[in-house]
Every structure is written in C-alpha cells, then in structure tokens.
Amino acid sequence: MPTVTDIEIVEDRTARSRCDEGFLRLKRYRARNRRADGSASPEYPIDVIDRPSFDAVAVCLYARGPAGWEVLTRAGLRPAALFRRGRATCLPEGEYLLLEELIAGVIEPGEVGLDALRRRAADEVREEAGLSLPPAAFEPLGAGFFMLPGIASEKIHLLCAEVPRGEAAAEQDAPGDGDGSPLEEGARLRWRPLEAAVAACEAGEIEDAKTELALRRLRDRLAARR
Prior knowledge:
The protein is an alpha+beta fold. It contains 4 helices and 11 strands. The strands form 2 sheets. Strands 3, 4, 5, 6, 7, 8, 9, 10 and 11 form a 9-stranded mixed β-sheet that branches. A two-stranded antiparallel ribbon has the order 1-2. Helix 3 (194-203) packs antiparallel against helix 4 (209-225). Helices cover 21% and strands 28% of the residues. It comes from Anaeromyxobacter paludicola. This is Nudix hydrolase domain-containing protein. Residues 52-214 form the Nudix hydrolase domain.
C-alpha cells in the first residue's frame, strides 16, 4: 500500500451535526455544587465528552532484546494532532501525521471485567501488531486512569505482556490494515530499548501520555523483579 502523506478534509459537518451523535458525544449541562450545609453554588456550564464505551485498554508489549529489555510502539494516523497545524500554539511544534504510542483500543459495550480487558488486549495486539497471544498472557500494569478528567469520561486500563523478540526488524510496517478503517493505513511498528523509549518521551519524540506512564510503570516493575 502506498505511503500516506496527508489527511484531506473532504467535508466539515460540524455546523449541522448534533452534539449527541457520532463516535464522540458531547454532553452540555448546566450544573451547581451541592454543599454539606444545604446551600448550593451558582449554576455553571459543564461540557463532557463520552463514547458508547467508557473504557479503553492500552497494551505495553516488551521483550528481551540483544541489549536488554525492549518495548513495542506503533505510530499511526491521529487527525486531532495533525489538525493542530497552522494553529496558534504555545510553543513551536512540528506536524503530526503519525503519532507514536502503545497499541490501544476501546472496550466494546458488554465487555466487563478483567478477563474482558485481557481478551480485548489480545484482539488489539493481533489486529495492530500481527501477534497472537492468549488473553492470559496480559497482566494489569497498575490501576486505570483518566487522561482528561475535566472534559472526557474515558478511563484507560494498562496491560502488559512479554513476547518473543525474534528476528523482527527494529522498525517495520504494521501488518494488514488493523480493523479495516482508513485511519489504520500507513502504521509503523518500532522496537525500542526501554530506557531509550522513556528518554524519547522526555525529549518529546514520543508525545503520548499513556505511553510514557506505561513505560515508566513497566521499568519499575522489571527493576523490582531483579
């Protein structure tokens, strides 16, 4: 498949779309704080972004490489980051066509419990990295967390699994087309030494918060094992 070079906006549907339809639903409330003494605050507006599912899973895959522990990341199309181009930003920045992060996916409605998280992790790893692992191979990597608790209801759950490093190249095209969406086109997989991956987060080369958190948790866990 040819390399993806840009995302073109064909139509802007914002003005005529309802805020409670689509993949993301924007809820707009007026609210007030209830106090222990029975009083209430003045009313104020709250915007909340929901999805049909309130949870997601992110997967930290790691392996023993020639120089020690390595981790697998995936660089994929991320329109929200790309469409910052041309906007007034606080600091100068480059253009984000592919954003490097962990393999991740949304929990489907009806998937409940740790076993469901493990099955979803296995499915996402198979789709996005072409690796087949049993759900039991995935371990929780600490507690779940919110990325944007002021506006987004989604909670992310981190799982990790050790995989064989094999002879795979350090960087390669992601296999297949993921879940079939055009947003899966052009994705790249990359093996990095764990310490180098953490350093890349600090340097701004990897700019995804869940990825940095997972890498640091994994580093601590592996150090504790020693």
